[in-house]
Write a structure and sequence with these properties.
Layout: H1 12-28, E1 33-36, H2 40-46, E2 58-62, E3 68-72, H3 76-81, H4 83-86, E4 91-95, H5 101-112, E5 120-124, H6 130-139, E6 143-147, H7 149-156, H8 161-182, H9 191-204, E7 209-217, E8 237-247, E9 250-251, E10 254-260, H10 271-289, H11 297-310, E11 322-324, E12 331-335, E13 348-351, E14 354-357, E15 361-364, E16 367-372, E17 375-378, E18 387-389
The structure holds zinc ion (3 copies).
Length: 391
């Protein structure tokens, strides 16, 4: 098990660098201020993990001034205890219950804008609630409001060594859970019961949050995002197990496909299932091997898609091959047709091809892969072969 104490943490200097980089990208993009609500952007820049509330919490990073974190008075203590707050990298500005927090933010934006800055451009975090966005627009009617990802995307998309260390710990913890679940028992239990065990084990293995536990048995395995149900797992059917959560803020996300035989070895996988699993395995391996700096994101998808099409199941691979992962479970870069952006060393993403035969069954194999300087670094290490288990 991994204790939070022994866990690598993002060092303080990194937050100072990130805040400075966000400020200079804003400056060079002509953005007067970047406004971040509760969420991954705020955590990335300050280490502050806040609850999303109707009361406004907002980090204001002006192009031309010091960053300030506006928080409801009752949240001032945790805000001050955050890495950036405790080190004085951001000034904590508490607001009272009767204050107009939006007006405070608007005032800070105005204050930081030089008289010459025209038009007024601000960027808000992509996941900021509509209630706050509309109120900000009303308070800054002359502002052109864009997305903070324009500023933060290129910072967050490339992971540093400490972030990769956390992604690796999360992957290793998820791998141990996959191995424990595959060891059974499975037959006779409901998907929901197994999903509950997955969540408990993710936390026991060091995750802060067990975010999802897809346990898709029998025909349910043909639905990529199946919600674990009361269906009882039977002998002679596959299970797609897709699990993950976050550890130290960084996500795990891995999928393995099992086949449960029960007591009867004759209840093993049929020919077609062995075939589709073999194709998915080849596609997953081929796509992973194609990872290198400079290769277009869409090319990784294309490699997997070509192998599956060659196998005769091109129309049954119904989703992109992968998504970036970091402080959010799905983030840039997306490995999908149309994304011609090149991979860079330090990018982290899933590679998860699948084949889904509706009404019958499906399979998927997923690893988290980091683009290394010389090629792929695969974080998930459980065997990718079809796991035929007595269950
Ligand atoms: Zn998914
Ligand atoms: Zn997944
Ligand atoms: Zn995924």
């Amino acid at each position: 098990m991994t204790s939070p104490r022994g866990r690598p943490a993002i060092p303080l200097e990194r937050y100072a660098e990130r805040l400075a980089a966000a400020r200079s990208i804003a400056e060079e993009s002509g953005i007067a201020a970047v406004l971040m609500g509760v969420g991954a952007d705020l955590r990335y820049l300050t280490g502050y993990v806040a609850q999303p509330l109707e009361r406004l919490t907002m980090l204001v990073v002006p192009a031309g001034g010091p960053p300030r974190l506006i928080v409801p008075r009752l949240e001032a203590i945790p805000a001050r205890a955050s890495t950036a707050g405790a080190a004085g990298l951001v000034e904590i500005v508490p607001w009272e219950e009767t204050d107009d927090a939006i007006a405070i933010v608007a005032g800070l934006v105005r204050e930081s804008v030089g008289v010459s800055r025209e038009p007024l451009r601000v960027a808000v975090s992509d996941r900021l609630w509509a209630t706050f966005v509309l109120a900000l627009q009303a308070a800054l009617p002359d502002a052109d409001v864009g997305l903070a990802s324009a500023v933060l995307r290129r910072l967050r998309i490339v992971k540093d060594a400490d972030e990769i260390a956390l992604l690796r710990l999360a992957a290793e913890a998820a791998d141990r859970v996959v191995a424990a679940i595959a060891a059974g028992p499975l037959v006779g239990r409901t998907e929901a019961d197994v999903a509950h065990e997955v969540r408990d084990r993710l936390v026991a293995e060091g995750h802060d949050l067990a975010e999802f536990a897809i346990v898709a048995s029998g025909p349910n395995s043909a639905s990529p995002h199946h919600e674990a149900s009361d269906r009882v797992i039977g002998a002679g059917e596959p299970i797609v197990l897709d699990i993950g959560g976050s550890l130290g803020g960084y996500g795990s996300d891995t999928t393995r496909t099992l086949w449960v035989t029960g007591d009867d070895p004759a209840m093993g996988p049929d020919e077609e299932f062995l075939q589709i699993h073999g194709i998915v395995h080849a596609a997953q391996r081929g796509a992973t091997e194609a990872v290198a700096p400079g290769v277009a994101c869409e090319q990784i998808d294309a490699v997997a898609r070509a192998i599956i099409a060659e196998g005769g199941y091109g129309d049954r691979f119904i989703h992109r091959v992968g998504h970036g992962i970091g402080l959010e479970g799905h983030e840039d870069p997306y490995l999908v047709t149309g994304n011609s952006a090149p991979l860079e060393a330090g990018m982290a993403f899933s590679i998860e091809p699948g084949i889904y035969l509706e009404g019958r069954y499906g399979c998927r194999i997923e690893d988290i892969v980091v683009c290394g300087a010389d090629g792929p670094v695969t974080l998930d290490q459980t065997p990718r072969e079809l796991l035929v288990v007595p269950g």
